[in-house]
Amino acid sequence: MMRIEQAAVVSHEAVRGGYRVLTFAAPAIAREAAPGQFVHLSVAGLIEASLRRPFSVYAAEKERIAIMYKPVGAGTRAMTRLAPGETVSLMGPLGRGFPTEAAEGRHAALVAGGYGLAPLCFLARRLGRPGTVFVGAATAAVLPSVGELSALGWDTRTATEDGTAGESGLITEALDRWLAEAPEALVCYACGPNGLLRAVAERAARGGWPAWVSLERRMGCGAGACLACVQKVRTPEGTQWARVCRDGPVFNAAEIAWEESDCVAPTAENRTPARS
Amino acid sequence: MSAEPDLTVDLAGIRMKNPVMVASGTYGYGPEYADLLDLGRLGAFVVKGIRIEPWDGNPPPRLVEVPGGLVNAIGLQSPGADKFIADYLPFLRAYDVPVIVNIWGRTIDEYERVAERLSAAEGVAGLELNISCPNIKAGGSSFGTDPRAAAQVTAAVRRRTALPLIPKLPPNVPDIGGLARAVAEAGADAVSLINTIPAMVIDTAARRPVLANVAGGLSGPAVHAVAVKLVWEAARAVRVPVVGMGGIVGAREALEFIIAGASAVAVGTANFRDPLAPLAVADGIRDYLVEHNFKSVRELVGTLRLP
Ligand SMILES: Cc1cc2nc3c(=O)[nH]c(=O)nc-3n(C[C@H](O)[C@H](O)[C@H](O)COP(=O)(O)OP(=O)(O)OC[C@H]3O[C@@H](n4cnc5c(N)ncnc54)[C@H](O)[C@@H]3O)c2cc1C
Ligand SMILES: Cc1cc2nc3c(=O)[nH]c(=O)nc-3n(C[C@H](O)[C@H](O)[C@H](O)COP(=O)(O)O)c2cc1C
Ligand code: FES
Predict the structure, then answer these.
(1) Any CB–CB contact under 8 A between B108 and chain A?
(2) Considering only CA atoms, which of B73, B33, B70, B32 is closest in space to residue B56?
(3) Is A227:B62 a contact under the CB 8 Å cutoff?
(4) Is the minimum CB–CB distance between A51 and chain B shorter than 8 Å?
(5) Which of A51, A139, A142, B60 is 20 to 30 A from residue B255's alpha carbon, by CA?
(6) Going along A102-177, which residue ranges are E strands?
């Protein structure tokens, strides 16, 4: 059940790759959040912002919930100033997460681009049985840490496009090398840029294994009310709009009408001008 | 200690517990926010625009935030009247809240059909007529920006429904009073305003429009002062009740509309940041009435003191 909680910041720390982990006390949301779900955060102090900001749940334990984010625009930059004790309004848990039961009897492969690792870390902790995780980034400086997953026994594979950390090249190339010898009973969970998700979907279709992808779209309400965040999906009645915030953000990769999935994240010049 | 002020409003026969409704397109079809509040606490529930047949709307991106508001080009995506009646109306009927359905069409015939269909359904308290849509028979110019076309569509729908009929006026017209009069004379029971203001946002790095539809409509705090002037002019021009909206965040903005002449108000964009905003606005109106010794919100309507 979706709720709104005034969540107090418990801790806020910079982690590897330019990311930050923000932990809140939000008992009701923490109790119900499942991997792949997200929270909609109202940035205190960003008065002119009419919209909340969506973030995947990175961790939910006991009374606490954490997100892992990267400052990119006015909202996320304002968030960097949040200190322990301050409160923000959190709405969540929102959307439909990754089906953990899809990993029963299958080897789980997690594929992350950038902060796409956040929901996949949460998923890995809930899956219990370790599998293989792929994390890609442009360069070592923006590669998030996979230390926690290695400690949990996951086989971690990283790749950077410039070869400054892990394998050199795209993460899909590392994935392809691994797929050549991968176990047959496989399930893939992915979160990252659209191109990466689409590449995973193509491989899943070719290999005949299930893949679940978490989409990212510009959102308004986050609750299914405004119809801003839509994506075409295939249904028995033809292709139809699904709301990424409520019907997703996690979808079966085979259901997405990928040819209608172009989405443009704001370019650096066009983020909301910082004012506060 | 003063008595509890009376917040009830009778809007052309629609009995509202308080003057604050939710604006069409910002609260969905009912289930979306039902986890967060009892929908029966809203003055009225205005449904997202419904067309007779399903409509796909625009490709994404459909919405972009700008300072003080947002620009949207959802494109009136609609499940169609039958699906709305079958899948959503029973849910809304279970709440003690008047359900006003916002309707639209591309031709007068489409307006007539959707009005007729919804009038035959159980649990619809009124129809809000979105006339800010392209009239495909008139080369795509909007029904709402031409008083004659607006009157024509209002009169046509009037013949098909006995429900309270509330044409929703666009802001981008030279004479809002004339437009309000035209639809009132054509049989409107009330008017609501404002719809969004035509707007666009350009991605300078890509030199492309941000919205896939190129342009959209501006809403939120940025439009409020514009809306107050238009509501004031419309309320002076007609005797039917006026519903004021545009940029309400808290009670103060709502009170401006009421003082300018609105009998009821609607909260739109503010719901995205705070879905409980309509309740807070109603509470704030109540507090104002107590503080200023009004026995009912009706007493406050149109009490603007001019210099
Ligand atoms: C389901 C979902 C999960 C997400 N999870 C994470 C996460 O775990 N960690 C993380 O760092 N980021 C995540 N994001 C992206 C995050 O929401 C954006 O980085 C953030 O909204 C940027 O806000 P801003 O004010 O700093 O940027 P601005 O560019 O100034 O924001 C302007 C508007 O664009 C929207 N916007 C900007 N970038 C994006 C984007 N990439 N996706 C969707 N909307 C955007 C903003 O919400 C805002 O409405 C997620 C997005 C979605 C949809
Ligand atoms: C995302 C969105 C969708 C909307 N959809 C509709 C609609 O379907 N029909 C309609 O008449 N108005 C629609 N509107 C306009 C609002 O009902 C309202 O008139 C306008 O947003 C001004 O109020 P606000 O500033 O409080 O949002 C929509 C507005 C938004 C932001
Ligand atoms: S963000 Fe409003 S419907 Fe998805």
Answers:
(1) no
(2) B73
(3) yes
(4) yes
(5) A51
(6) 107-113, 132-137, 155-160, 167-168
Element (H, E) at B292: none
> What's the mean pLDDT in A221-249?
96
Instruction: Collect all residues of chain A within an 8 Å Cβ-Cβ radius of residue B36.
Output: 2-4
Q: Is A211 touching ligand 3 by the criterion CB < 6 Å? A: no
pLDDT given for residue A44 in this prediction:
75
Smallest CA–CA separation between A208 and chain B, in Å? 30
Rounded Cα distance between B306 and A158, Å, is 69
How many angstroms separate the CA of residue A229 from the nearest CA in chain B? 7
Decide: B213 and B62 in contact? Cβ < 8 Å.
Answer: yes
Among residues B149, B147, B130, B154, which one has the least CA distance to residue B139? B149
Distance of alpha carbon B43 from alpha carbon B145, whole angstroms: 29
State the helix-helix crossing angle for B277-291 and B251-260, rounded to 10 degrees: 60
Residue A85, both tokens: 């004790």
Cα–ligand 1 centroid distance for B85 (angstroms): 35
Strand partners, A87: A8
Q: Whose CA is nearest to atom 26 of ligand 1?
A: A73
Ligand 2 neighbours, Cβ below 6 Å, are A 220, 226; B 23-26, 48-49, 72, 74, 76, 102, 130, 168, 195-196, 219-220, 223, 245-248, 267-269
Q: In terms of C-beta density within 10 A (0-12 exposed, 13-18 middle, 19 or more buried), how is residue A89 classed?
A: middle
Residue the block writes with tokens 């009421």: B258
The answer to whether the predicted template modeling score (pTM) of the entire model surpasses 0.90 is: yes
Which domains are seen in chain B, by residue range?
9-61+74-200+217-300 (3.20.20.70)
Q: Measured in whole angstroms, how far is the alpha carbon of residue B107 from the centre of its chain?
A: 20
pLDDT tier, B133 (very low <50, low <70, confident <90, very high otherwise): confident
Q: Which two tokens stand for residue A258?
A: 């990928």
Contacts (Cβ under 8 Å, ≥6 apart) of A140: A160, A164, A165
pLDDT tens-digit series, residues A1-60: 999 999 999 999 999 999 999 999 999 999 999 999 999 999 876 667 899 999 999 999
Please give the distance, rounded to the nearest whole angstrom, from the Cα atom of residue B218 to the centre of ligand 2: 9
Q: Is the pLDDT of residue A272 over 90?
A: no
Residue A249 has phi, psi (to 5 degrees) of: -75, -10
Q: Is the CB of A219 under 6 A from ligand 3?
A: yes
Least Cα distance to B42 among B165, B164, B125 occurs for B125
B210–A220 CB contact, under 8 Å: no
Confidence band for B182, pLDDT divided at 50, 70 and 90:
very high
The angle at the Cα of A179, spanning A177 to A181, to the nearest 5 degrees, equals: 90
The residue type at A37? Q
ipTM at complex level: 0.95
Nearest atom (ligand 1) to Cα of A70? 11
For chain B, the C-alpha Rg in angstroms (whole number) is 18
A228 in contact with B, Cβ within 8 Å: yes
Greatest C-alpha distance within chain A: 53
Residue B147: C-alpha distances to residues A220, B103, B140, B228 (Å): 33, 18, 15, 21
